[in-house]
Amino acid sequence: MSKTKNFWDNASKNYDKTEERFEYIHHKSRENTKKYLESSNVVLDYGCGTGTTACEIASDVKEIYAIDISSKMIEISKGKAVEKNIENATFAEGDIFDEKLKKGYFDRVLAFNMLHTIPNPENAIQRINELLKPDGLFISITPCLKDKLPFLIGLQIRLVQVLCKIGIIPVPIRRIKSSDIDELMTNGHFQIIDTEKIFQGASSYFLVAKKIN
User: Fold this and answer.
1) Cα–Cα distance for residue pair 16/66, rounded to 1 Å
2) Per-10-residue mean pLDDT for the chain, 213 residues long?
3) How many Cα atoms within 13 Å fall on the side-chain side of residue 153?
4) Are 29 and 202 contacting, i.e. CB atoms less than 8 angstroms apart?
5) Residue 46, strand partner residues
6) How many CB atoms within 10 Å of residue 130?
7) Distance CA 97, CA 22 (A)
8) How many other β-carbons are positioned within 10 Å of the β-carbon of residue 103?
9) Residue 82, SS3 per DSSP
10) Measured distance CA(19)–CA(103) in Å, rounded
11) Of 108, 114, 148, 199, whose CB has the highest number of CB atoms within 10 Å?
12) What is the pTM of this model?
């Protein structure tokens, strides 16, 4: 965990800058997400990064609790919340398996650009199911690096995978398809209620799934 945390701590300095080229995907994902939010919702943002999404949707919900394993990411997130005078968002260093997170407490759980980077997505989905209230929604956006990719981005992904294998990048970045996400949801006792493939330089898969009681 420490190597992964250090990697994301170091990445935090330029994270927003590096994500600018995917802003269309990020913006579209946030707009899609807002359609499934209610003012009474308590939301968990899993892997919140620098807090952009949490800050943008805070006004649409009752409370948002955002976690990330990177303390540096959380520092940046807190700064954004202060700058925007957001009072209903709490940012904390932590993981989805933190025992402080109460089972059956959240109306919505978000996981943006997460499922292709974590060691055991099946375990994470099971935990998310536990944290959601009955009929709660899981909302995600995931780069599907086995789907349509321009040639140059495909080469970049292969280079990243090599760096992962030799340990320079301590994050298990996997090439997955949208159908893999669907299967993950079905096996994790979720009913898929909405999907959209969003493409800009790479294919990302937006998904909304309801917890099956």
Assistant:
1) 17
2) 81 85 89 97 97 96 97 96 96 95 97 90 96 97 71 56 61 81 96 90 88 92
3) 16
4) no
5) 67, 111
6) 14
7) 29
8) 12
9) helix
10) 32
11) 108
12) 0.89
**CATH code of the domain covering residue 134:** 3.40.50.150
Range(s) of the domain holding residue 161: 2-211
CA distances (Å), 173 to each of 115, 126, 169, in order? 9, 20, 9
Q: In what order do the strands lie in the sheet with 106-112?
A: 89-93, 63-68, 42-46, 106-112, 132-143, 203-211, 190-199
Question: Left, alpha or beta for 91 (phi > 0: left; psi -120 to 50: alpha)?
Answer: beta
Alpha-carbon gap, residue 130 to 133, rounded angstroms: 8
Token readout for 184 is 């993950």
pLDDT at residue 211 in the model? 98
d(CA 191, CA 185): 7
| 21, containing H or E segment | none
CA distance linking residue 23 with residue 19, whole number of Å: 7
